[in-house]
Amino acid sequence: MRKRPVTQIFNPEEIVERILIKDILYKCTAGETVTVCGWVRTRRESKGFAFIVLNDGSSQETLQLVVPGDAPAFGELHRCNTGAAIRAKGILKESPGKGQKFEVEVSEIGVFGDSDPEKYPLQKKGHTLEFLREIGHLRPRTNTYGAVFRLRNILASAVHDFFQSRGFAWVHTPIITASDCEGAGELFSVTSLDLENPPKKEEGSVDFTQDYFGKRAYLTVSGQLEAEFFAMSLGKVYTFGPTFRAEDSNTSRHLSEFWMIEPEMAFADLMDDMRLAEEFFHYLCVAVLEKGESELSFLQNQYKRISLEDLKRLSETSFVHISYSDAIKELENEKKSFEFPVQWGLDLQSEHERYLTDKVFNGPVIVTDYPKDIKAFYMRLNPDEKTVAAMDVLVPKIGEIIGGSQREERLDILEMRMRQTGVPLDNLQWYLDLRRFGSAPHAGFGLGFERMVQYITGMPNIRDVIPCPRAPQTIGF
Ligand code: 4AD
Ligand code: MG
Prior knowledge:
By secondary structure, the chain is an alpha+beta fold. Helices cover 28% and strands 22% of the residues. It has helices spanning 21-27, 129-134, 143-165, 224-234, 270-291, 293-303, 308-314, 324-332, 350-360, 411-421, 429-436, 449-457, and strands spanning 33-46, 49-55, 63-68, 85-94, 102-113, 169-170, 176-177, 189-190, 217-219, 236-244, 257-266, 320-323, 365-368, 390-395, 399-406, 442-448. The protein has an 8-stranded mixed β-sheet with strand order 6-10-11-16-15-14-13-12, with helices on both faces. A 5-stranded mixed beta barrel has the order 1-2-3-5-4. Strands 7-9-8 form a 3-stranded antiparallel β-sheet, with no helix packed on it. The longest helix is centred in the N-terminal third of the chain and has 23 residues, at 143-165. Mean pLDDT is 94; it is low at 1-8.
């Protein structure tokens, strides 16, 4: 067995009661003895003292550890390099240093895991976000990603608080599915067939009856269709889970795997849907302002892409409503400056969305009543028979953050829309059943969770707000 150095006071394997650095500030008083654990940010020595800056991930805060030269722990210091995981015990003192209330005068120190300072990828000098993306397993230890992922957690928790407090039930819709909710064909296949040598039908196509599920299966693009049958039974529900899109979009706002929140309400129309979306959006803004102020302040100072003031204003500002047809009229005034054409019937490109949010309205906008031909089969046909009861919430810099609609509850019209858009009816008989037995008006929407986190944090790329980003040609960890 390896001998422990004599100066190592702690047995690192021993479990001890530790206090989180974020709690020290308001739970402790000077003179108390505390034990903290964390990762060393920096270490320096001066005038017979050593100073270690420690972060434990519980907040943006770091804690300064002061080790007097005559402390028995001093001998361990050579191992307390940047990146090392350590534990320290000592007395809490009022700190003479600026920006920190307390420091710890250390009497005992122990190292859980060493870190070679020459090789540790996180050096004190600032790294680019691109570089940090390559070391996704270490980037949460930086101030930036610590802030982003703590804010992500605050938002995730607020999602549940919002819906639970309003009587919505969380339903766990499947990840593997047999249907294409959006009808856009952007599906990843799930198969256990031998791809080198799949079973074939006589006419030469792959025989999926011999596949694992006996038919074609995919990763879900949305939990909406399944959420609908729970709305038509439990009344008010929401999903919160991962969704997958095999779209070939290599942009700063697209992921192949992203999380979506999809509320669905029975006995509700498009107006109810829009009201819920706005209330939800405001609630999330208030939650981060209340619980993530130090993270937001850090990001505001570091990158100057967000401001707490703007967020506060946003949390109180009503969304502007504009119909697709009126939006097209607005865009036609600026036609010349766009790369993509503006014409009734064509989808809005992100340059158009940004023009509306950033230039015309300077804030979030809900665009409603899109042409039926550019929207999914399940959206309710309007009396004009040209448009559907759809709504997209657009926000500055990002564009579309929420997509939703009132659903088509009339069986004959839904069947017609499915035929027109080439959605196979036989595969979705269960969906049609909801219109055969006790159909009712209902509506819902999907909020892209990463787009929301990106919006709140101001991170320039959506890949910086999800732990392990998946995108075309990109999969690590
Ligand atoms: O507009 P989408 O495709 O709508 C649906 O999936 C509906 N079934 C939702 C519903 O009504 N229940 O997607 C909803 C939101 C978008 O507004 C966007 O925020 C996000 O999901 N989103 C993406 N986020 C990241 N990467 C992608 N590739 C995304 N595609 C959509
Ligand atoms: Mg959409």
